[in-house]
Amino acid sequence: MKAIASIGAAAVLLAAGCGGKDSDQASSTRGEQIPITLNEYTISPKNVPLNGEDTYTFLVVNKGTMTHALELEGNGVEEETGDLGTGDDATLTVTLKPGTYEMYCPIDGHRQRGMEGTVVVGGGSGSGGSGTTTAEDTDTSGSGYG
User: Fold this and answer.
1) Using CB atoms within 10 A as the burial measure, which of 23, 50, 67, 132 is most buried?
2) Domain range for residue 110?
3) Closest by alpha carbon to 62, among 21, 105, 102, 18?
4) Is 145 domain-assigned?
C-alpha cells in the first residue's frame, strides 16, 4: 500500500511541476526557487501568491527570442535582474513584506505590451499595483509559497 501511495504522490508532484504549458499561477514549497518564464510579451506565471514575509528567490528564464528582464516593485522594494538574452537565466532574491508587488519587464515598451503580473504576500494587505483580476489569474486553493 505504501508503494501505491508513493507512486500517487510522485505522479501529483510530476504533474504539478512539469508539462508543456506555462501556468498563470506559480506553486512551490518553502525554500524552493520560484520559477518565472519570460517570453515575447508574457510573464508566466502572471500571479505569484506568497504566504508571508520572508526572503524569496525567483529563478527567471528568458525563453523568448529577444532580450527581456524582470523587475519587482512595491512596498519600498525595487529590484531587477540584468538584461537576459535568449536562453539566459538569473536569480532575483528579495525580502518581501505583506502586500502587493508589481512584476514586469522594464525594457522599453514590453510592459505596455503585456509583460506584467503581481506578487501578493500574505493576502495582499499592502499597497501596490492596480488592475482587474480574473478567476484565471487568481489562486483560490489557499496555497502559496512560504
Assistant:
1) 50
2) 23-137
3) 105
4) no
- Cα separation of the two ends of the chain: 31
pLDDT band at 132 (very low <50, low <70, confident <90, very high): very low
CATH of the domain at 77: 2.60.40.420
At 41-60, the pLDDT tens digits run: 999 999 999 999 999 999 99
Domain count, the chain: 1
Q: Is the pLDDT of residue 119 over 90?
A: yes
Q: Assess if residue 57 is contained within a domain.
A: yes
12 secondary structure, DSSP code = H
143 inside domain: no
Handedness of CA 58, 61, 64, 68 (dihedral sign): positive
Q: Using one digit for the tens of pLDDT, what is the confidence trace for 15-38?
A: 333 333 344 545 444 567 999 999
Global confidence as pTM? 0.68
Q: How many CB atoms lie within 10 A of CB 100?
A: 19
| 3-state DSSP assignment of residue 96 | strand
Distances (CA, A) of 13 to 55, 129, 143: 24, 32, 15
